[in-house]
Design goal:
alpha/beta; Rossmann fold; globular
Length: about 170
Amino acid sequence: MSDNMVFGICQALAQQSIAALRFNFRGVRKSGGEFGGGIGEQEDVRAALALVSSTPNIDQKRIGLAGYSFGTSVIVPVATQDERVKLLALVSPALSDSGWEQLKGYTKPKFFIVGDNDFVISEQQFWQQVKDIPEPKQCQIISGADHFWGGFEGEVAQKVTQFFADGFSSATAP
């Protein structure tokens, strides 16, 4: 929740009047529970979606998920099964083969962003994985950035925020 990328993205979204909910997965810092191997954490995402969906003044046509690193592996299975999720942003996706496979059937707007020095997913692996993912999709490689994005937080947050702003504005277009 206090991660530089998560915090930066949520802050940038709020500056554009886009509501953002950030939370720790179970067992992280003072959160209750224990690490659930990615499966239990999917329940955390579903609970967050339920909260957001029941919050007054949240437009149900404008709900998206953004994940960073491990978070991407947790949100992909939820997004691909939950109709409430309209947009999906993946920063430094740390996906298993099954995660990439799930995205091959996902036809809602997606945004992928990785650094060209990412040690979790190389640029070559990234392009190999996204080539079979259906449109609409946007892909960005940031030169000089690694998996932790030190010094690139603002740029990434702006790009993720722009993806959501553009996607949410077209959600209400006639």
